[in-house]
Amino acid sequence: MNQANRTLVRVENLRKYFPIRRGIIIERQVGAVRAVDGVSFTIERGETLGLVGESGCGKTTVGRTILGLYPATQGQVYIDGQPVFGAKSRDMLVIRRKAQMIFQDPYASLNPRWTVDAIVSEPLRVHQLIKDPKMRSERVVELLNLVGLSGRLVNRFPHEFSGGQRQRIGIARALASDPLFVVCDEPISALDVSIQAQVVNLMEDLQDKFNLTYLFIAHDLSMVRHICDRVAVMYLGVIVELASRNELYENPLHPYTRALLSAVPIPDPKKDRHRSRVILRGDVPSPISPPSGCRFHPRCPIAKEHCARLVPDWREISPNHWVACHEA
Amino acid sequence: MNTLLQVRELTTRFHTPEGTVFAVNGVSFDLGEGETLAVVGESGCGKSVTMLSIMGLIPKPPGEIPKGEALYIKRDLLKLSDAEMQHIRGKEIAMIFQDPMTSLNPVLSIGRQITESLRTHLGIDQKAANQRAVELLEQVGISEAARRLADFPHQFSGGMRQRVMIAMALACVPNLLIADEPTTALDVTIQAQIIELVIQLREQLGMAMIWITHDLGVVAGLAERVTVMYAGYIVEEASVDDLYDDPRHPYTLALLAALPRVDLRRERRLKSIPGAPPSLLVEPKGCPFAPRCEYVREICRKENPVLTPVAARHKIACWVDINSGDLR
Q: Residue B272: how many CB atoms within 10 A of its CB?
């Protein structure tokens, strides 16, 4: 396979601004939340790319915009070679079949009035993949078995399941249309530790079985290190660092990545006592008017005078290790 | 070290339309003056209900505390009248909660909320209370404290709101601070700030602390002693070093094995715990972990083991010695 063929998802200079409007009768735009402000990356087939960052950094917006759930303000996304923005509705339907999503909240993402059968078979009906109702029901049972649930549960409603089981139902629904690419938006953060491991192992098994490509959006840096091949770190709408998993965790170059990693608690008291911590001061600034130059400069422990003026270039410091920092 | 709090055989149930919920089933532990104890467990293990019971915050009905005592400096908190409890709550024992947005009153200014408890418990006038409130806000790291007294909760970020909660809890310099997942809703860098603050305040004030959490990582850097809860029981209690170096209960062992590590390279799949915690609607019989336990024996299903010592200051509730695999 050549390079272009190996790449399944290509994101080019993606921007997503949410307008802020004022006025009741004459509505006018007074500003914009710059949730995603120029993000580029690629994901190879069969790969898991992690997208990490704190609340409000834009990681969820990236995931949703990539799938065309929000129109992009600027930029383009290609999934399996097809452009997402400007696609005809027929082409969009094909993209939607190939690219699916698993949501964070297994309580809010399943329709409480629908049975499991209705939920899991919806993609089959929408995309008219299986027209015969009997065969469709068989496929639903097959999908449930695939995610470790009994086929006898098809007529139950979401409230009859635990959080972990609901997340399995969400995964079965996402897999119904035989996707190539799945955006997993904090798929395990609402679950207890013992259940998290079950769901993560299931996701890994399914990836191996169907050669799935994942964009794994999370704030749990330990889990991201476990599950992802490469990791991108976002801060205030931009990616500040991107590298393979061990490179990023063992040799972080951006001061924000360093602070983030040093803030993660380690379940080992002796080791935890001897760690050097970078404690960041203050809160994340507003994405309505992000700081000039490098967006991290007001909180950066090593910021120099030029960091406030100049936007740092996105540089490849060593092979496949990218960073946007003047001082790295 | 003198004992500050001695809890014995605490039992809490809730009578609901679905049946009786066996939330806490005979929990006993001690807390020394100035000591930090962590209570770890997953959703529904009874960790919060245990503390709410001690604080007299269980609504009755539907709640009921049929058995147990909680001796705080020789007084049984469970037998105090509401008026007597009011005196202790907020003054001698303070509590902070997970979600600072819902535990603050949205329509009262921060200043009003902090000074309320100062005026109730210390009987000082508004002017003195305001002055003390400013000191408290400065102590928890809120800049321009005097100006911010007039601000409302929504004008603070999540981390700042948690700081305000801590300031309120510390207002009367309590002997004991009970913290119920205070950093769970926060981002890791903000969590690190809050933990740093709490450790610093603990040293300044010499107060004892009970920290309720599901995060075994946070515990490692914070607590001296740890109890692990499962289905309304304490299953293991040890010093923080012993618990992580030498866990003896199969549940603790399984929890640690299910955790990915931010500081280590991936070596294997996560070890998941099969199944889910038991329903609390069924009267417990036998060891609650038996259905998920890989060391399970015949006796485990019949009789629930009591918490007994395995080493100095290290107790477990288990029939099996996990090192040899034999019965203890």
A: 19
